[in-house]
From TrEMBL:
EC numbers for this chain: 2.8.1.7
Highest taxon in the source lineage: Bacteria
Keywords in alphabetical order: Aminotransferase, Iron, Iron-sulfur, Metal-binding, Pyridoxal phosphate, Transferase
Protein name from the UniProt record: cysteine desulfurase
Family that this chain belongs to: Belongs to the class-V pyridoxal-phosphate-dependent aminotransferase family. NifS/IscS subfamily.
GO molecular function, one term: iron-sulfur cluster binding
Keyword field contains Iron-sulfur: yes
CDD domains registered for this protein in UniProt: RHOD
Reaction(s) the record says it catalyses: (sulfur carrier)-H + L-cysteine = (sulfur carrier)-SH + L-alanine
Organism placement in taxonomy: Bacteria, Pseudomonadati, Pseudomonadota, Gammaproteobacteria, Alteromonadales
Length: 700
């Protein structure tokens, strides 16, 4: 078997996503292994092996009661917090009397999605017919007590959380309890305590909390184990029945290795002499150190929660003008693991928690969550601060962050660059040596990014044009005003087709339709065809005694083969304004439904890794420039960094040179490389593969 290629050693990883899950502590892993190998009996069996298993089960329950301060009530082992939430909701709603009109199920607006979805599920399945109502929160993420008091008299259940998983905001449970019990002494109350374990002291039996779910993997235990506290004499309906285990409260043979993990975890939490879990004072120092490093790296950083209301192990922040995806990717390349919010919502582009708190849209869309655990060591925090500095430097070199110093970064951008927002495409025509640029079909959401690029590279903007009808409030006009305000050389008359565009330009040889003059962008000519919904043609570089041809056509929404057949050549790259399928560009043959291109090479992972060891292979690292900078690929094969933004220019530059060369596309996860590989095959690169799973799988 081929030995895996290691881009960066696993021990180099800095894991700061502990609110999603945590690594398993060595002593906890040892307890799991010992139980699986030596104490593997069924706790319900009456022989010695079963009795040994029963001892672990009972002793873990006893220790768990000490940890959460619950000498009374039930402590039921579950598969995790989600099962605990389901069990609590089912128990409360099964017990509820047939509601009258207007009954409510209350839950905090910033609750984990498992809570409202469980409420909705069992409400419908049991035919309760109650109305789900989200309890509003203020800008600090704290629950609205007046709303609770007003709606609780008609509520069948109320669900809140102790600590929010995205922001670390901690609710005032003592005050909340007084508000709830003054209005509704008997209403079932569930508190999600998942993020609070190990970060605060518990005394659940001294409260009127009815249900409290916990999860092992949030505090250095394995996944698949958790427990649920149920207050004595409160409604309970088993979610799983058939066997009678857990005193009839949860059937199924207990997960003894997982329970043994909790046993060791509980011992650590109860041991006042242990050095594994740091005191709150140390955790606060960690947070301050990380926050200082982040603020130095990102001067426009804004915290999305107040520190005084949050546990010390969570920082949620946004950086104005920098999408969370860009920060996450460069952090990941630097081997720092963070998230853009809840791990259960990783495909969502904004944070519902920050939306509920009423924060600005840009903060919700750009949020980063950094979370560490109470067992984190000082060396990890020190290393994280250094890596954060390196990641920010890479973002500045890519012009995604503007520096307040005189740093001069040499951009790798040259030629045609495609920027995207969802399916909308904006094109930059850049001449690197002349420091000139034209913008075609600007997208409002990309305006700040373009402004930063212009300011960072000191480009002279020759024109901001659109394939739509020009108006004073068009994206092109708005962007030109923004560029003027930033002090760049972009005169207001450069909005739309400039009056200075030469009328006597020689028409490129592929074009058989009239053009409205041309504009020089460095060593290339940009032509306009039509006026109402124009298209733009970009010539090949001007050369002595050589007739220009049309290399690129920016066609907007124009899909008329009749017009394009007259305006462009067979090899012209057609760049549309909207690209739903990530085609990147098209050729005339494709528009005319003529098959072209090659098939993607389908080889196994071992052969792909073998390709990476061959000098004749070209590896296209399609990660962004800042990702490549912090984790360059050191391989026997030739490596080129070609992000998707620059892929159309790469196709133009190399489709003849590299047509038959072995090419492996590679990125962080395999998603971008899959897109790149499919595009290259369409344009005649006939020996292309991509590394499914990406760099994430190289270190397995």
């Amino acid at each position: 078997m081929v030995t895996p290629i290691h881009i960066r050693p696993k021990e180099d990883e800095i894991y700061l996503d502990c609110n999603a899950t945590t690594p398993v502590l060595p002593q906890i892993a040892a307890a799991v292994s010992h139980t699986m190998e030596q104490v593997f009996g069924n706790p319900s069996s009456s022989h010695i092996t079963g009795l040994q298993a029963r001892y672990i089960l009972d002793n873990t329950r006893r220790l768990g009661r000490e940890v959460i301060g619950a000498p009374r009530g039930h402590l039921v082992f579950t598969s995790g917090a989600t099962e605990g939430i389901q069990t609590a909701v089912l128990s409360a709603l099964t017990h509820a009397q047939q509601p009258t009109q207007g009954k409510y199920l209350l839950y905090g607006a910033t609750e984990h999605k498992a809570v409202p979805q469980a409420l909705a599920h069992w409400n419908e399945l049991l035919g309760i017919g109650a109305e789900l109502k989200a309890i509003p929160v203020d800008q600090n993420g704290l629950l609205d007590f007046d709303f609770i008091s007003a709606h609780l008299p008609q509520a069948l259940m109320i669900c809140t959380m102790a600590v929010n998983n995205e922001t670390g905001v901690r609710q005032d449970l003592a005050t909340l309890e007084r508000v709830i019990r003054q209005v509704a002494p008997e209403v079932p109350w569930m508190v999600d305590c998942v993020q609070m374990l190990g970060k605060a002291d518990f005394a659940l039996s001294e409260t009127t909390i009815d249900y409290a779910p916990f999860s092992g993997h949030k505090l250095y235990g394995p996944k698949g184990i958790g427990f649920l506290y149920v207050r004595e004499q409160r409604p309970f309906t088993p979610l799983i029945i058939g066997g009678g285990q857990e005193q009839g409260l949860r059937s199924g043979t207990e997960n003894l290795p997982g329970i043994a993990a909790l046993h060791t975890l509980f011992e650590l939490l109860l041991d006042k002499q242990q050095q594994v879990f740091k005191p709150v004072t140390v955790l606060n120092q960690y947070r301050e150190q990380l926050l200082e490093a982040l603020r130095m790296a990102f001067p426009s950083l804004e915290l999305n929660h107040a520190l005084e209301y949050s546990v010390p192990t969570t920082l949620n922040f946004s950086v104005r003008g920098v999408p969370s995806r860009d920060i996450m990717d460069v952090f990941d390349a630097a081997n720092i693991r963070v998230s853009s919010g809840s791990a259960c919502s990783s495909k969502v582009t904004r944070s519902f928690v920050l939306d509920a708190m009423g924060l600005d849209d840009w903060r919700s869309q750009s949020a980063i969550r950094l979370s560490f655990g109470p067992a984190t060591e000082q060396a990890t925090i020190d290393a994280a601060c250094q890596r954060i500095k390196e990641a920010a430097h890479a973002l500045r070199q890519s012009c995604l962050l503007l520096s307040d110093t005189n740093e001069d970064f040499d951009s790798e951008l040259d030629g045609v660059v495609q920027l995207r927002f969802d399916a909308h495409c904006c094109y930059l025509v850049i001449d690197r040596s002349a420091r000139e640029m034209a913008v075609i079909d600007p997208v409002p959401q990309l305006a700040e990014r373009i402004e930063k690029l212009v300011a960072c590279q000191h480009y002279r903007v020759k024109a901001v044009v659109t394939t739509e009808q020009q108006g004073a409030d068009s994206p092109a006009a708005m962007l030109a005003q923004l560029l003027c305000a930033s002090g760049c050389d972009a005169a207001r008359d450069n909005v739309g087709w400039p009056l200075s565009a030469a009328a006597d330009c020689s028409v490129p040889r592929d074009c058989d339709v009239p053009t409205d003059g041309c504009l020089l962008v460095g060593n290339r000519r940009l032509y306009r065809v039509g006026t109402r919904q124009p298209i733009y043609l970009l010539s090949s570089p001007i050369a002595a005694n050589a007739e220009a041809k049309v290399d690129f056509a920016f066609i907007g929404e124009q899909a008329s083969p009749q017009l394009l057949n007259q305006a462009v050549g067979k090899h012209t790259l057609l760049c549309a304004k909207t690209d739903e399928t990530f085609a990147i560009a098209q050729l005339l043959d494709e528009l005319n439904d003529t098959p072209c291109g090659c098939e993607l090479v389908n080889i196994g992972p071992e052969q792909q890794l073998e390709w990476l060891r061959r000098p004749e292979t070209l590896v296209l690292d399609v990660r962004e420039q800042q990702e490549h900078q912090v984790t360059p690929l050191e391989l026997p094969a030739q490596v080129m960094n070609v992000p998707l933004t620059r892929l159309v220019q790469f196709i133009y530059d190399y489709r003849e040179t590299f047509a038959d060369r072995p090419v492996v596309c590679l990125c962080r996860s395999g998603n971008r490389s899959g897109v790149a590989a499919q595009v290259l095959t369409r344009f005649g690169f006939c020996n292309v593969s991509h590394l499914a799973g990406g760099m994430a799988l190289l270190n397995l």
